[in-house]
Model the fold of this input.
Amino acid sequence: MKMLGLSKKDTTFLLIVIALTLLTPILLQPFPASSTLAQFNAGYPDLMQRFAIFGIFAIGFNILFGLTGYLSFGHAAFLGVGSYSVVWMYKLLGYNVVPGLILAIIVSALFALLIGFVSLRRSGIYFSILTLAFAQMCYNLAYSVLTPLTNGETGLQVYTNDAQVLMGENSPTSPHFFGIVMNESATWNVGGWQFVFNNGYYFTAIIAILVFYLSLRIFRSPFGLMLRAIKTNQTRLNYTGINTRPYTLAAFVISGMYAGLAGGLMASMDPLAGAERMQWTASGEVVLMVILGGAGTLMGPILGAGFIKYFENIFSKINDQVLHGWFAFLPDGLENFLIGVSHFFVGKSWHLTLGLLFMLVVIFLPGGLVEGGQRIANAFRKRKSGGDDAETEAQPSAAE
Amino acid sequence: MSKSNFTRRGLLKTGAVTGAGLALPTIFTSGAAAFTNEPTGDTVTFGFNVPQTGPYADEGLDELRAQELAIEHLNGMGDGGMLNTFSSKVLDGTGVLGKKAAFVTGDTQTKSDAARASAKSMIEKDGVVMINGGSSSGVAVAVQGLCQEAGIIFMAGLTHSNDTTGKDRKANGFRHFFNAYMSGAALAPVLKNAYGTDRRAYHLTADYTWGWTQQESIQSATEALGWETVNNVMTPVGAGDFSSYITPVLNSGADVLILNHYGGDMINSLTQAVQFGLRDAEANGKNFEIVVPLYSELMAAGAGENIKGVYGSMNWNWQLQDEGTQAFVKSFGEKYGRPPSNSAHTCYVQTLLYADAVTRAGSFAPCAVAEALEGFEFDGLGNGPTLYRAEDHQCFKDVLVMKGAENPTTEYDTLEIVEQTPVDQVMYEPNHPMFGGDEASLGSCNDGA
Done:
């Protein structure tokens, strides 16, 4: 079956992604609330929203990095710009997220146009450094120079004495989409399980699916092919008389808009915009997400985003007290030894675990987690059909 | 090409399942809890949100130690610490309202975003009724806003900016720590005695909210003494090298340098100022002096020798001789083998104050707890008689003026207490212009869902 201008295979792929996205609240809650393993459950609204939002961010980044090979170290700037746009719309108009999100996309596109126009005159490491410089400039401006606009380090917030001209008497007093309040959820208790279906999550999830579809179309379009040609050999394209800069600039602006949208959505879930959203660490994070998941693949960035956010939010909360709970059944000496060892990998040391995993992935799976998935799938398929079907891909990916 | 098993039947099935999944939320509505995270079992969970990585990680760690100790004391383990000296006697070591106190921890990374994410996961996943801790005003303001929206109580940790209980004050947020205005008010008389009324001050200020409010407070307090402010230069946070900011100071006509820096920035700027010979220099016929308005044990240890004789202020210090302080220092020292820091103390006290308010209110409902805390007067927690003012949820108590010790004997007594400024001297009106003026309001308290 073909649908929405996609091939049969892509349609299946898209439907799988849609199903996975919509069922996330159930899939991420595999352990009953009372079990000790509930620590590993990730199905609470804030984290699910983050999965979707950083998924969008990474999908957008992948359009630039995965397709053209241009490594931007400054995408956090657009994330921050998007957030500030949305919070300003809250302050001026009201808590409906739509005007803010539209403004976020427009403003981040303008920023991307400006930064891209200058930075794309260079390629390789020089391009990366230029984008990094611009992003740090934006960060410092937001942190301490443009404080009337950004409220500096404290972050931009909505105050009760803000204009909010479109606020009616009965309007919700937190971000909403035409009356659907983002932070409201419905809880479903089945057996020992507790599933939370959150409005905000479904709002971001639906947007994520839309932009995923858009990126799928870009990957399959002649434009996407041109971007891939730029990655493969830009010099040759130039010699054949093709001016590549409009294409790279377009890719840069599109991915900047994705980042702006993601930033806007962050402020839609939580009405605050802080300058550190623009810091270089945030730019680096999205690079890690894309590489960890698999650059240039469709699904990779989303997986990478989910992976990193899971570590940041779940592993960082395993403290010594929790470890004691787990290993309590062991003899004292062994227990203390195990806790001493685990101590270096969880809690405040979660960065170390993530770093090790990142190294393992880069060394053994250069194609990221997607490559890992493909290898596993191929291994199973070989066993089943006697190894003659190895060509079939587990997922339609634009391998490099 | 691959063979897909995609059929009409399959699509219908998937569609039905997806539809059902989407419709579910409307069938199963949320339970009718009276307020957010109403504890129903035999435990009640507190959230300790402190920096465990980043520039203030050491302070976060010390806060966590104190919070763990507070939980032990609430549950009747250990020697009870300040529970024995606290003027309110409702806490008896049997948990809080008959429920055993438990806690979860999170890492703020000293970033507003990360702190809010961690606080949200505590609220949504772990079901905490109160969040305590933190070591930065930006983070405190951000998390306080979140707790207000979510409908739980926020007991601020180390946050010194006027804004936390000034223009950003919230009905669900409470601060025990002192603030920049109080630092200025407490330091001014001491500076007058030590350095006279005819001084010219040069400010180096960390370029963010906390730095600005502190600079504003100190400038107004010193100008009231008759001092003149020569210049105020903003320095980027985390600059590392301050030499280019310090070089012009000597020739500016100033004779006092005021460093509105904190943490690593303060260690660097003070060390460099001393290396540049500012302490030994003379200007306007007087000895050149340096002042660091906000001190912490950590900074004092980092700055080492350079801190000798430099004035600053603190919320509390373990060297105080009152009963409460001694009880706390004893039980902290026995458990961890070191005296507690200023920030550890404030977090410990905040946890006890919350538990006490819950017990007096007879409920965990945020509005009831807030009402019990508002206007609450207590003693025996190390700062002498203290008032939790109802209008802005700020604690009013004596402020300590400190000086770098001339002859420290251990690594823990690098600071000595110069004066305990009485609370009347640091009092201000709730609508003081430095605290948001008449526009600042707590809003109404929020019990959440």
Summary: Residues 8-279 of chain A form a domain with the ABC transporter involved in vitamin B12 uptake, BtuC fold (CATH 1.10.3470). The first helix of chain A runs from residue 8 to 22. Chain A has 16 helices and four strands. Confidence is low (pLDDT under 50) at residues 387-400 of chain A.
